[in-house]
Each structure stands twice: as structure tokens, then as C-alpha cells.
Write a structure and sequence with these properties.
The complex is a heterodimer of chains A (about 775) and B (about 160). Chain A is of the alpha+beta class. In chain A, about 30% of the residues lie in helices and about 20% in strands. In chain A, helix 12 (about 370-380) links the parallel strand 15 and strand 16 (about 390-395). In chain A, helix 16 runs parallel beside helix 20 (about 735-755). Chain B has two domains: about 1-75, Beta-grasp domain (Ubiquitin-like (UB roll)), CATH 3.10.20.30; about 80-155, [2Fe-2S]-binding domain (DNA polymerase, domain 1). Helix content of chain B is about 35%, strand content about 15%. Chain B has helices spanning about 25-30, 75-80, 85-95, 105-115, 120-130, 140-155; strands spanning about 1-10, 10-15, 50, 55-60, 70-75. Chain B is globular, with a radius of gyration of 15 Å. The chains are: A alpha+beta (about 775), B alpha+beta (about 160). Chains A and B meet through helix 8, helix 9 and helix 19 of A and helix 1, helix 2, helix 3, helix 4 and helix 6 of B.
């Protein structure tokens, strides 16, 4: 029998993201057997992301000619509902207001796994899935019309919901007449020809988002808004610290409270249900729970040293085998270490879900980005089969990866099953922040060798990062807090050192390799740069906190280290940062975004730091950073212009100029909105955000202890340069600018002050400390 | 439990709740309004904002027994998708939304302030949005939308 692993349920990039870090501790096949499923079925294995190949799964046309399209890629606030509606309207040739898009409902829409990793455009806007369904349907309609009208297909055109004879609008037959109310009974045709971007009239245009009018008037239904008849309200009581176990619960402590309070426990999981939300909150606060303490957490003051000291699971992205020799023979060697903290999704609203669990059927309303994996894992929690569980996606507050949408879905499911009625759970701010799956902390050691001409001849990287849990996959709910405390295991960790030699194709899905190396594995080279001697070694340790993909997971941290280090090297050889990048880049599209951003920013060509800079008061500077996101999923370069108040240590970004090449653009205003949002998020994460903890628990539990970038904060001017390419595949756009923001800001601070910041966040205290060191050594 | 009369979006409503219940839960669960949202429960983000007697108030921290009889306006009370209020229209025009969960905080805080200070400077406006949070980073567009509305207001 095929060996089934939870990893099999992950998308390629998530699998790579964790490559080697996690091993099987949970037999999906055995679990499937317990649930009475045939091993080998996708559902039994918990394998998701195998969308339907039949046209009828994607598109239906009613008798009135209205088009209903079904997609497994969800709106997360990134505008995908509108962009996919544009796509269907364009390919089918119908007005956009005649298309109804159904998103992410496990009973109705194709299984497209998880909406994540800027993978929705690659999945649905190229020659596959939703785009191919639109093209297949259009060609089928033209064929039907050809028969009906007795005119060869070549003389027909599909337009405005009908097929007509080219040049004779009086000879036409509408889609409703052709297929209305019936099925196509056709497979998706790989040969179906999509409309060329040069002919687009709906896609590629800045169509206003269809959902915004409801959002700004308070009519939009979020996961937090779902209410069903007979519903009660739940609240969870999480352990006081990671690893604490339940000793006892005193149910009598809430017996006198109003609201028909019910207490539910399961292993270390504790929750309450009451008639009204405020009653549930009060009951959760009042409930007396005794916990067995957990071992102390590693001290935050020495956290980065601790990371280096732990057992590791090691993986090479690339290793040319000659790095040590080339470093030895180099004219000069440069070394730097970069530090990045745990950060959180910190969604604006706390996660919420509604569960209606019946005897043989369960429905969950959830804002999970992974509705199909969630269906399987909820089934595990409830002891049901996956096809007895229906997940209905509703947008939540911006998620950016794995907030607690999945976790709270298990909470609601457990309570509803115990209570016998539908239950809604919304987490407290503290429970949201203390227990979510944090974005990864990193320690990155960089080393390069330079030749006599100041060109990089060898690049050596070692990156440490922690992992624990992640997006729930397979049939295992244990990768997030609620599933874990309810008794399900976290995917395991097995140290492995040394790393095996890299094999297969070069894959830079985590941007482990810098943009300036050739990226060769075997005889194939997939990198964007020219440096042939390359060694990129990742070392994963076990995390004390849950971790998961947070917008630009790994890529952001690695790019901060790569693009800051490249800037340090350029400065040390007195080269202009743009010129020095171009000297080491061979990929023409990456070179073009760098050039385009520099040009639009009116880049001041010279080495950093800015000559004649002041030692006190406000200093100004500019910096640049670039990336080919995930090694193959969107090109971006960004220039940041900053001011640094050298008396207070406060840095302010005054201007961003960002150039993006994501192939053919579906909606230029949507792309700009994503670019701008990524840059503002980038400021917040670069200058403010860091998860703090003490010996027993996370201390970052609200917006005072985890300060974000607010609307009252000083804003930069943002200029976006879009490079629209018609004849290449569509790539992602949503995670590109945030990936380069920290490095661009840090490089600009260096330009302004001559001080290099190697640890995020760039708080006033850190900046002042670095300035103090500069001044005392000057 | 006790009875409270609330005038919400021009409609007089009666609810029977624990007097300490935060107004937000009454609006969401007793009156089934979607505009105000739970964000933090601590007054640190603005997602639960409503307008009470002309002022922006954080409904997550406002016990229902302190607003009895007062005029309360939620995001729904300003306009509809078909006929949005001018400040809502400004957000549509600027496409100043990503996930949209923060809309009550941003729109109602700005509106309440501009209603009382129609000639506010940008700096004053930004100050008025103190502790209003958008995590998607739509800040630049939101400020543009608010200025667009403010400019119209001065002209009117």
C-alpha cells in the first residue's frame, strides 16, 4: 500500500516550506480504516487539491442565460472574488453582472485545497481549472450554435451571452437557448483556447470590486456574522501556558450563572456554552480550572542563541560543493548575521466559526483558507467521515496565512457536538494572539567571498528557523492549538544532520537561495543570478510556539537577509546598490523590475551611505530590494525613502516606489491595492511587530503589547509600476511587496545614517543603540 | 436581565438583557446588525465603532445600560449598497478596502469627527483616527477616501 503522509496533503510549496522538518506521527491510512473509508480515496487520505476535471463542476448556465461558476479559491480580502468573476465573464463572453460566483463550499465547489501562497492566479488564471473551464464552455457553446444555426464554427463569435454569426448580429442564439438548465457533460479540454490578453475587455481592466458596496455599508456576511436558528454561544478556556495540562475543572463554579451554561472538556480542551455570548464569556471567566504547569519557555533574552543550540533538521536548497575552497581563495570575505522575530497574523477580528453538528452530518461556517483540509480534520474531531462534513467558507478579517480560523472551527464543532445544538464561538483577543500559529523567527548567517574586482564569487548561507504544527493537513487536527489540546498530535519533528545532498530540481519556493546565485542542482540551474559557488543550508528546530505560514513565510525573512547583505557588500566595495545588483543578476525580468523601480524613483546613483550625512537630527536615505517571489511566482523591486530622527530613533518611510511583473494582469487596481497593502504591512512588521514572552506564556496579547501600525501613523507616498506581460503565465502578486519591504527600509536607514540594522523590528531603541555605537566608534 | 429601549438607525427597539452587556453584543446578537464587529474588546482597534449622540463610541466597552434612550447609528444606518452615504461612496470610489472588517472603525470615526470639524486639517484628521486599525494596510487609500469626503463636505 502507498505510504500516506500528512505532507501529501500539503501543496507543493507548503511541503517544501517544511521539507524535512516534519515527519509522520499519524497514520492517515490507519485513521481512514478506523473511519471505515476505503484507503486510496482522496478523502480517506486527506489529500486535497485535486479539482474536478468535468466542466459541469465549474460552470452552469441557467435557462435565463445566467452563469454560475464554482471555484475552490476563496476571497480573502485580496479581490479574488471579483477577479475570478472577471475571468469567467471574459472567457465565456457574458456581461460581468450575469455571472454568479460560488466560492469554497465543500459540498458544491471543486476541491482546490488551500487558498494560499499567492497560488490562486497560477491555479485558476492559466491553462487549467477555472480559466480552462471558461474556455471549454465557450468552445462547446460555439459548437452547439454551429449545429443549431448551420454555420461553421469559424464564422461564429461568442459575445454578450450569445453566439452569433460574425458580422451579422441578427443570426444569433443565446447561451440560455443552447444549454440553459442542462449540463454540458464534457471534460475540461486541454486544447480549449483561452482569449488572448490583447483581446480582453473585462479581464485586465480595473473593474471595481463587487463586494465593497456591501462591506462599506455593513451588509457583507463575514464568518463572524453567521447566525443560525437555535444557535448558542461558546467560549474556550485555553491552558495558561504552552504544554500545561488539565488537572481539574470545577463545574459547580458556574452552576449559578444564567444562560443554561454547559461545561465541555476533552483531554486538555475546555470550553463552555451558553444562550448568549456575554453569558458564555462570563462563564469562561468564572470557571475554576486547575492546570498542571508546563516546563519553562526558553528565555527570550537569549532566544537567538538558543535557536543555534538546538537539534536541527537540515536541508540544502543548493550546494555546489566548492564554497569552502572558493571562500578560502577569495580576495576578501564578508560575514553578517540577521535576526528576525516571531510575528503574528494579528487579524483585526478574532477568529469565529459556527458549527451545526447533527447525528450524522455537520456543517461548519469558517473563514479557514483551507476548507477541504478543514473538512477532513473536522471529520476526525467529530468521528465522522469527511463526506458527512460540509465546510461553508465565509470571509473573515484579513488572515494572511493561518490565524485561528481552523482552530476555532474545531472549538465550535466540539461544543456543538456536545451541546446538540448549533454553536458559535468567537475567540477573545488574548486567546487569538497567545495561541495562533506565528510567522517564523529566523537566525541567518551570511558569508560571501569577493574576488579582486569586488565581484561575489561564493555565497554561503545557514538559516535556523523553528517549526511546530502548521496548517492542519491530512486528517490530523493537531497542528493548531484547539486540535492539539483536544488530544491530537502535532506533526512530529526528527532531527537530521548532516543534510542530504540536494536532489531533484532547484526549488526556491522559500527564497532560501539569494537572487544572485545560479541555483544549480545537478545540471539544471534555476536561479536568477550569476554566482556559481553556492551553498544554502536550512536548519529547522522545534518551536516552543505553534508556527505556520504568515504572509510570505520564510521568503520574507530570507529576503530581508539576502537583500540587506547584498547592500552591505555593495557599500563595502563602494558600489551603487542598483548597479551592484544588476552586476550579479542574469534573469531579464528581475533585472527589469529593478531598473523600472529605480527609474520611477529617480534613483540617485551612488554608493551608500549618503555622503555628508548628518550625525544628529533628521537624516534621509534611500534603499532598494528585489525578489523573484518563491523562485518562480512574481518579480518585484521596491525603493524605500526614509527619514531617521537620530535623536529619537524613529524611522518613517516617506515614499515607496514598487515595480511588479506578475505576467498578464487580471485587475490593475486590484494589484495596486495588494502592492500598497503589502508595503504598509511591511512597515508595521519591520518597525513594530515582535512576539514577546516570559518564562510561562506569551506576553503579546493585545494591541498594546503587540503594537501595530495604526491609521494615525505617518503614511508614505506609494507609487506602483506595473509591468504587464501578455505572453507569459500569470503568477502571484499578493505577497511580493511585503517580501522586500524590510530590506528596502533597512537599506534606506543605512543610506541615511551609515548604521546597518540586522535585527527586526527596527524599534527606536534599537536604532538609537546602533547610532550610539556608530558615534562612539567614529 | 432588564429591559432597555434603544434607538438604532432611527428604529426604536426594546431588548431584555443583562445591564452590563456590552452594546456590541446587543447590536450583533439581539438586533442582528452586522456593521459593528468584535475586534479586541479593549477599545484598541475600532472595529466595533458606532455613533452615539454624534460621537464615535467603541461599543465593545460600552455597557448597554449607559446608552439607554440614546440615538445610535451603525454602519448600516448611513446608507445601503444601492444608495451609499457619501463617505461610503468615497470608499467605493477609492476602492479603499481589502477585507473590510475595519470599516465601522474607519468610516464612523472619520464621519463623526468631520461632522463636528468640517474644516479639519489632515493632521487633525489623522489624530482623530487614533487607535483605529486596518491590518490589511489599506491606510493610504482610506485617508484618500476620507479626504475626498471631507472636501465634498466643505463644498456642500
Amino acid at each position: 500500500m502507498t505510504r500516506l503522509t500528512p505532507e501529501a496533503a500539503l501543496s507543493r510549496r507548503e511541503f517544501i516550506a517544511r521539507s524535512g522538518a516534519l515527519i509522520v506521527t499519524f497514520g492517515a491510512a490507519a485513521a481512514a480504516g478506523r473511519l471505515g473509508l476505503a484507503p486510496g480515496t482522496a478523502a480517506a487520505q486527506g489529500i486535497n487539491g485535486n479539482p474536478a476535471t468535468q466542466l459541469d463542476a465549474w460552470i452552469a448556465i441557467g435557462a435565463d442565460g445566467r452563469v454560475t461558476a464554482y471555484t475552490g479559491k476563496c476571497e480573502l480580502g485580496q479581490g479574488l472574488f471579483t477577479a475570478q468573476t472577471q475571468l469567467v465573464a471574459e472567457e465565456l463572453g457574458v456581461p460581468i453582472d450575469r455571472v454568479t460566483l460560488i466560492m469554497c463550499d465543500t459540498d458544491r465547489t471543486p476541491d482546490q485545497g488551500t487558498t494560499s501562497g499567492a497560488q490562486s492566479h497560477p491555479a485558476n488564471f492559466n491553462q487549467a481549472n477555472l480559466a480552462l473551464a471558461g474556455a471549454t464552455a465557450r468552445e462547446a457553446l460555439v459548437q452547439m450554435a454551429s449545429t443549431r444555426l448551420g454555420v461553421p464554427a469559424e464564422q461564429l463569435v461568442a459575445r454578450d451571452g450569445a453566439v452569433q454569426v460574425t458580422g451579422d448580429a441578427t443570426r444569433r442564439v443565446s447561451y440560455g437557448e443552447l444549454v440553459g438548465g442542462r449540463t454540458f457533460n464534457l471534460p475540461l479540454s486541454r486544447q480549449a483556447r483561452r482569449k488572448h490578453p490583447s483581446t480582453w475587455t473585462v479581464l485586465g481592466t480595473p473593474v471595481q470590486r463587487l463586494d465593497i458596496p456591501a462591506m462599506v455599508t455593513g451588509r457583507y456576511e463575514y464568518a463572524q456574522d453567521v447566525r443560525v436558528p437555535g444557535m448558542r454561544h461558546g467560549r474556550v478556556v485555553r491552558p495558561p501556558s504552552p504544554g500545561a495540562t488539565l488537572a481539574s475543572v470545577d463545574e459547580a463554579s458556574v452552576r449559578d450563572l444564567p444562560g443554561n451554561v454547559r461545561v465541555v472538556t476533552r483531554k486538555n480542551w475546555v470550553g463552555v456554552v451558553a444562550d448568549k455570548p456575554f453569558q458564555a464569556i462570563q462563564a469562561a471567566q468564572r470557571l475554576k480550572v486547575q492546570w498542571n504547569p508546563a516546563p519553562a519557555l526558553p528565555a527570550q533574552a537569549s532566544w537567538y542563541d538558543y535557536m543555534r543550540s538546538r537539534p536541527t533538521r537540515e536541508t540544502f536548497t543548493t550546494n555546489s560543493g566548492d564554497v569552502d575552497a572558493n571562500l578560502k581563495s577569495a580576495a576578501r570575505i564578508m560575514r553578517s548575521t540577521y535576526l528576525y522575530p516571531y510575528q503574528m497574523h494579528g487579524s483585526l477580528g478574532t477568529s469565529a466559526a459556527v458549527a451545526d453538528v447533527r447525528q450524522d452530518r455537520a456543517t461548519i461556517w469558517s473563514s479557514s483558507q483551507a476548507v477541504w483540509p478543514l473538512r477532513n480534520t473536522v471529520a476526525t474531531v467529530l468521528g465522522m467521515k469527511p463526506d458527512q462534513v460540509r465546510i461553508q467558507f465565509r470571509l473573515g478579517p484579513g488572515c494572511y496565512g493561518v490565524n485561528q480560523a481552523d482552530s476555532v472551527s474545531y472549538d465550535a464543532a466540539i461544543l456543538s457536538q456536545a451541546d446538540g445544538r448549533p454553536v458559535r464561538v468567537q475567540l477573545s483577543r488574548q486567546d487569538e494572539m497567545a495561541w495562533e500559529n506565528y510567522g517564523l523567527a529566523f537566525v541567518i548567517d551570511q558569508q560571501v567571498g569577493l574576488d579582486a574586482g569586488n565581484t561575489i564569487v561564493a555565497w554561503d548561507y545557514i538559516g535556523w528557523s523553528p517549526a511546530k504544527g502548521g496548517r492542519p493537513g491530512g486528517n490530523n487536527p493537531g497542528n493548531v492549538v484547539s486540535g492539539n489540546v483536544a488530544g491530537y498530535q502535532i506533526q512530529g519533528f526528527a532531527p537530521r544532520s548532516p543534510a542530504p545532498a540536494p536532489s531533484g530540481d532547484f526549488d526556491n519556493g522559500n527564497n532560501v537561495a539569494s537572487s544572485y546565485v545560479t541555483g544549480c542542482v545537478g545540471s539544471m540551474c534555476g536561479g536568477t543570478g550569476v554566482v556559481k559557488s553556492e551553498r544554502f543550508l536550512s536548519k529547522v528546530i522545534e518551536s516552543p510556539f505553534f508556527t505556520g505560514p504568515l504572509r510570505s513565510p520564510n521568503r520574507l525573512q530570507n529576503t530581508f537577509a539576502h537583500e540587506s547583505f547584498l547592500d552591505e557588500i555593495a557599500a563595502s566595495v563602494k558600489a551603487d546598490p542598483v548597479e551592484y545588483r544588476l552586476r550579479h543578476l542574469r534573469d531579464p525580468r528581475l533585472r527589469e523590475v529593478v531598473t523600472a523601480a529605480a527609474k520611477a524613483a529617480n534613483w540617485d546613483t551612488r554608493p551608500s551611505p549618503r555622503p555628508g550625512g548628518r550625525r544628529n537630527g533628521v537624516a534621509t536615505g534611500r534603499g532598494i530590494a528585489c525578489v523573484l517571489y518563491e523562485g518562480d511566482n512574481g518579480y518585484c523591486a521596491t525603493v524605500a525613502e526614509v527619514t531617521v530622527d537620530q535623536d529619537t530613533g524613529v524611522v518613517q518611510v516617506r515614499r515607496f516606489v514598487s515595480a511588479l511583473d506578475c505576467g498578464p494582469i487580471s485587475n490593475p487596481d486590484g494589484v495596486r491595492n495588494q502592492m500598497e497593502g503589502g508595503l504598509i504591512q511591511g512597515i508595521s512588521r519591520t518597525v513594530r511587530e515582535e512576539v514577546r514572552w516570559d518564562a510561562t506564556r506569551v506576553q503579546s496579547v493585545d494591541w498594546r503589547s503587540y503594537p501595530p501600525f495604526y491609521l494615525h501613523d505617518q503614511l508614505p507616498v506609494i507609487e506602483s509600476v506595473l509591468i504587464n506581460r501578455a505572453d507569459v503565465p500569470a503568477t502571484g502578486a499578493g505577497e511580493t511587496t511585503v517580501t522586500v519591504a524590510a530590506a528596502a527600509i533597512g537599506n534606506a536607514i543605512f543610506d541615511a545614517t551609515g548604521v546597518r540594522l540586522r535585527q527586526v523590528p527596527f524599534t527606536p531603541e534599537r536604532i538609537k543603540e546602533a547610532l550610539g555605537t556608530r558615534n562612539s566608534t567614529a | 436581565m432588564a429591559m432597555f429601549n434603544l434607538t438604532v438607525n432611527g428604529r426604536r427597539q426594546t431588548v431584555d438583557v443583562d445591564p452590563a452587556t456590552p452594546l456590541l453584543y446587543v447590536l450583533n446578537d439581539d438586533l442582528e446588525l452586522r456593521g459593528p464587529k468584535f475586534g479586541c474588546g479593549l477599545g484598541q482597534c475600532g472595529a466595533c465603532t458606532v455613533i452615539v449622540k454624534g460621537r464615535a463610541v467603541r461599543s465593545c466597552m460600552t455597557p448597554v445600560n449607559t446608552v439607554g434612550g440614546a440615538e445610535i447609528t451603525t454602519l448600516e444606518g448611513l446608507g445601503t449598497p444601492e444608495k451609499p452615504h457619501p463617505i461610503q461612496q468615497a470608499f467605493i470610489d477609492e476602492q479603499a478596502v481589502q477585507c473590510g472588517y475595519c470599516m465601522s472603525g474607519v468610516i464612523l470615526t472619520a464621519k463623526a469627527f468631520l461632522d463636528q470639524n468640517p474644516r479639519a486639517t489632515d493632521a487633525q484628521l489623522q489624530q482623530a483616527l487614533s487607535n483605529v486599525l486596518c491590518r490589511c494596510g489599506v491606510n493610504v487609500r482610506m485617508m484618500k477616501a476620507i479626504r475626498r469626503y471631507a472636501t465634498q463636505g466643505v463644498r456642500a
